[in-house]
Amino acid sequence: MAFVITSACILEQAADCVTVCPVDCIELGEDQYLIDPDTCIDCGACVAACPVEAIYHEEDLLTEDLPFLEKAKTFYNIA
């Protein structure tokens, strides 16, 4: 997985990331947008577009944001 959308998206849901994604790998889940790790090409366009800085590279996630990685994996049925 390249990028993960974290808690700030739950309150904002601006969808700017969806608009700029060149491979359409971002979908609205139950309460926030999520990135499909199998489709993401790691371009970073979503990071620059996010108005609330909710998107981080998996390797840069804080411990408290790790559940959002699992949330995306569950949403996209990835083991």
From TrEMBL:
Which PROSITE patterns is this protein grouped with?
A: 4FE4S_FER_1, 4FE4S_FER_2
| Entry annotated with the keyword Iron-sulfur | yes
Signal sequence coordinates = none
4Fe-4S ferredoxin-type domain residues: 31-60
| Assigned keywords, A-Z | 4Fe-4S, Electron transport, Iron, Iron-sulfur, Metal-binding, Transport
Function of the protein:
Ferredoxins are iron-sulfur proteins that transfer electrons in a wide variety of metabolic reactions.
Question: In its UniProt entry, what is this protein called?
Answer: Ferredoxin
Give the organism, scientific name: Sporosarcina siberiensis
